[in-house]
Amino acid sequence: MTGGGPLGIVAGGGALPARLAAAARAAGRSVFVVALAGEGAEVDADATVGLGQVGRLFSLLRTAGCHEVAIAGYVSRPDLGDLKLDWTGIRLLPRLAPKLRGGDDALMRAIVGAFEDEGFRVVGPEEVAAPLLATECCLTVSSPDGADWADIARADAIVGALAPFDVGQGAVVARGIALAIEAVEGTDAMLARLADLPAHVRGTGKAARAGVLLKAAKHAQERRLDLPAIGPETVRRAAAAGLAGIALRAGDALILDRHDVIAAADAEGLFVVGYTAHDLSRHCGAGA
């Protein structure tokens, strides 16, 4: 990060905003956190704004001296009829409203553009907290076997093929069968519905684990706002779904609370692995 002044953090829900704030402070950078009301931000905030209070958000960040801004955490897609827009929000509505009806990436790019037009530099999690990025390695005692690598390769191909349609950042494959594709419901809900599938197509717990949850950024997506992430709760839900492990494309996904993720995975007998295209080729052949 090169900008002067505190790092502004616009905080949605989840653990990521707090992790970014901690990383910035550890690097000697002060932070100014603005939480989005109603999103359950898990971070101590300096101020709170409603989703429609766009002008107030920009004003708060400027008054705090922020030149760089990180936008982190999940945000529910709003119902335009329920938004209480201030004047700046009304001015931006024609630009953002059509994107609300499209995919996530189009909306993310429009939001970044709005901040940049106001003179802010939007930075991504990898710039603020590079150690959160998944790297090429297996983090756990358990590691993928040949069948798991075949599932990882198939899930990677599925996520890649869906990228032009701006659909999800995750998929679950077990024994070569695509069990689930992440859409607007998110990873937790996707894993929860695996329990409704027949036992013969999915894993059934520690004695017969099968299948892989794969998380990877979509090709050419807006990385500053929407990198996929896992945390300890992801591991617990993957275990409850009977999966054998979690695969993250190296450099394209975040691991929150890494120590806790590893501990939870080892306790359940799951693997957590960061992989590259070279790994897929090595384990699955040139056509992977």
UniProtKB/TrEMBL annotation:
Enzyme superclass (EC): hydrolase
Chain ranges of the LpxI C-terminal domain: 136-273
A GO molecular function held by the record: hydrolase activity
Residue ranges annotated for the LpxI N-terminal domain, each copy included: 7-130
Enzyme Commission no: 3.6.1.54
Annotated keywords: Hydrolase
Repeat as UniProt keyword: no
Pfam families listed in its UniProt record: LpxI_C, LpxI_N
Domain of life: Bacteria
Keyword Hydrolase: yes
InterPro entries: LpxI, LpxI_C, LpxI_C_sf, LpxI_N
Name used for this protein in its record: UDP-2,3-diacylglucosamine diphosphatase LpxI
